[in-house]
Design goal:
Length: 122
């Protein structure tokens, strides 16, 4: 959900800003440029959730048999208190390289699909 929110909201805004620079509305520059910007923001919005999910998946019992986290919210709060907010962005460059192309291909395909539908009268 965070990935989609970051992707869709930033894509529309980025395309508008690129068009305001003088590029033709609907041309490839705003579509592809907006998609790349959306990939960055989608990564920034979704990485903290992915980080917590990964920590939850990798946790092992403490020596006394208890688990280190009671749930995702507890994991996030403990991480925030002990390691600070930037810890949630560990591995951000790698995450952008993984998520960015997915966002770009999705948004470019979505834009192209709309143009094909219009061309075919659908």
């Amino acid at each position: 959900m965070a990935l989609n929110m970051g992707m869709l909201a930033s894509n529309d805004q980025a395309k508008e800003m690129i068009e305001d620079l003088g590029f033709e509305k609907g041309s490839s520059v705003p579509v592809i440029g907006g998609s790349f910007i959306a990939g960055f923001f989608a990564s920034a919005c979704s990485l903290p959730f992915d980080f917590v999910k990964t920590r939850m998946q990798k946790m092992t019992p403490n020596p006394d048999g208890t688990m280190p986290y009671k749930g995702p919210v507890d994991c996030a709060l403990q991480t925030l208190r002990s390691e600070g907010p930037l810890k949630f962005y560990t591995g951000f460059p790698t995450y952008v390289i993984r998520i960015g192309p997915h966002v770009v291909f999705t948004l470019v395909f979505l834009d192209t699909l709309g143009k094909w539908e219009a061309k075919m009268g659908l």
